[in-house]
């Protein structure tokens, strides 16, 4: 009886065990539908990098990146509220610092689009202009949020430390005018 169990266990193990070391029949599998051996990749990596239409499209994608962040920043501004606490302050600081940083690195951002590999490159003045406008829009949103939180000195009472003290025209002591 134990021999039958051992044989049954061995046959179960072989039944669920796959052997990938040999191929069945020795023949190659047919190609999947829609695939042909003659239609190999026409575009090589070198042609993809030098394709002017692709370079222009990628440069416009980079240029429109800051403008695509505007709706997200508006939503974050709405969700953080106008209270002065740590989260809105950090959010406003990041909204102000990030566009300034990206404007300082604009030359490196568009460097790969201007100098082509084996070609003359792409004129990116329009893309740079849109890139700067998008970053200025994000900076304007940060300033608007600062104004809404009351962090910008926009009222006369914010400048009282720099105002001259009021000169009194007359002084009164004990009910007698001097």
Q: Any idea what the radius of gyration is?
A: 35 Å
Percent helix among the residues? Answer: 55-70%
What about the largest sheet? 2 strands, antiparallel
Task: Output the helix-strand order.
Answer: HHHHHHHEE
Give the count of helical stretches: 7
Structure overview:
The protein contains seven helices and two strands, in the order H-H-H-H-H-H-H-E-E. It has helices at residues 2-15, 45-50, 52-63, 65-80, 86-104, 106-114, 125-149, and strands spanning 172-173, 176-177. A hairpin with a 2-residue loop joins strand 1 and strand 2 (176-177). The longest helix has 25 residues, at 125-149.
Characteristic key phrases:
elongated, mainly alpha, 7 helices, 178 residues, single chain, two-stranded antiparallel ribbon
Short summary:
With 178 residues, this protein is mostly helical. Helix content is 57%, strand content 2%.
């Amino acid at each position: 009886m134990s021999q039958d169990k051992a044989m049954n266990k061995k046959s179960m193990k072989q039944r669920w065990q796959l052997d990938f070391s040999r191929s069945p029949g020795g023949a190659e599998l047919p190609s999947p539908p829609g695939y042909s051996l003659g239609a190999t990749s026409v575009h090589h990596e070198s042609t993809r990098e030098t394709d002017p239409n692709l370079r222009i499209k990628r440069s416009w994608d980079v240029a429109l990146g800051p403008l695509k962040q505007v709706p997200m920043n508006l939503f974050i501004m709405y969700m953080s509220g106008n209270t002065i606490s740590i989260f809105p302050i950090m959010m406003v600081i990041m909204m102000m610092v990030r566009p300034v940083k990206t404007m300082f690195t604009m030359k490196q951002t568009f460097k790969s689009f201007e100098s082509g590999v084996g070609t003359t490159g792409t004129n990116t003045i329009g893309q740079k202009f849109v890139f700067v406008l998008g970053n200025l829009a994000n900076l304007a949103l940060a300033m608007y949020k600062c104004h809404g939180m009351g962090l910008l000195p926009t009222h006369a009472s914010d400048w009282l430390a720099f105002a001259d003290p009021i000169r009194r025209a007359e002084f009164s002591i004990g009910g007698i005018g001097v």
